[in-house]
Design a protein that fits this description.
This protein has a three-stranded mixed β-sheet with strand order 2-1-3, covered by helices on one side. The chain is of the alpha+beta class. The protein is built from three helices and three strands, in the order ββαααβ. The chain starts with a strand and ends with a strand.
Length: 90
């Protein structure tokens, strides 16, 4: 399973952390994690770069959760893996 986490930090008014957690520490899973991370960032960057606030960024992320999951699942499948994807916004 791969986890994608958007986490509001303690400084919630100024920061949203983005984590992709791999299925394992193996080199293959770590490489896959980076591919997923890069594709998600590539997709979200144009939207988030136009954001005017952290609240606006949260809404952008919320409204794109389904697409982010689809992107991650597509990368995982294309790379020959069969991992589930779990997204979390906390």
């Amino acid at each position: 399973m791969m986890f994608i986490i958007f986490h509001y930090d303690d400084v919630k008014d100024s920061l949203i952390r983005f984590h992709v957690i791999a299925n394992s520490d193996s080199d293959e899973d770590q490489t896959l994690k980076l591919k997923v991370k890069n594709k998600v960032i590539e997709y979200l960057y144009p939207y988030l770069s136009e954001s005017k606030s952290v609240d606006n960024s949260r809404e952008i992320i919320k409204s794109n959760m389904d697409k982010v999951k689809m992107i991650a699942e597509d990368v995982i499948k294309r790379e020959g893996y069969n991992y589930d994807v779990n997204l979390e916004l906390s």
